[in-house]
Specification:
The chain is mainly alpha-helical and 189 residues long. It has two domains: 41 residues; 120 residues, no CATH class. It has eight helices and two strands. A two-stranded antiparallel sheet has the order 1-2. It is elongated. It starts with 15 loop residues before the first helix and ends with a helix.
Length: 189
């Protein structure tokens, strides 16, 4: 059983007051509907707000991809990463969060500086090579261009299946409907 549940990764959202501080004073050409004007201004205000937040706090927003692959590969060979990886694996008793087998890898769900420093363990998932390959294959996509959300969906599905397996093992008197639901989820895989 994992030491703690893996929570969804969410970015901060601005309040209406924060958006109003960055609301652009744009003059639109006649004929642009007020609804479209509102959406454009909201989009621009949010973009400006995000830039200000990032300047103050670089760890504020999700970073779903590696910006410099060469530096990242060097990081994966560093003593710092080995220390963080070992800590994550020990925290979860070397158990793959997806299938329950022995975990020998750690999957990054996010590449924020605080995650890469090992300060945010929620974004680091102990995982076996087989499950990690499955997640990364979905993440890379068929065209090789990359799709972070697809990888997250596969990871979430694997995590749900593992949780269902643990529930079945822990409860000999599981309701018939719950067993059927678990069986349907397993057969889709």
């Amino acid at each position: 059983m994992p030491a703690a549940p893996f929570l969804p990764i969410k970015d901060p959202e601005p309040t209406e007051a924060e958006l109003k501080k960055y609301w652009p004073g744009i003059r639109f050409t006649p004929g642009v509907s007020s609804k479209v004007q509102e959406r454009i201004c909201r989009f621009l205000a949010k973009a400006k707000w995000e830039l200000v937040v990032i300047e103050k706090e670089p760890d504020a927003f999700l970073v779903p991809f590696v910006e410099d692959i060469q530096r990242y590969n060097e990081y994966l060979k560093s003593p710092e990463w080995n220390r963080i990886k070992g800590k994550v694996l020990r925290l979860h008793n070397y158990q793959c969060a997806c299938c329950g087998n022995r975990a020998n890898q750690v999957h990054h769900r996010d590449y924020r500086p605080r995650v890469l420093r090992g300060e945010d363990m929620n974004a680091l998932v102990p995982i076996c090579k087989r499950c990690h390959d499955h997640v990364e294959k979905a993440r890379k996509g068929k065209d090789g261009r990359g799709n972070w959300q697809a990888g997250e969906r596969v990871l979430a599905d694997l995590l749900h299946r593992q949780r269902d397996e643990e529930l079945i093992a822990a409860s000999p008197i599981l309701s018939r409907s719950r067993r059927a639901k678990v069986h349907r989820r397993k057969s889709r895989a």
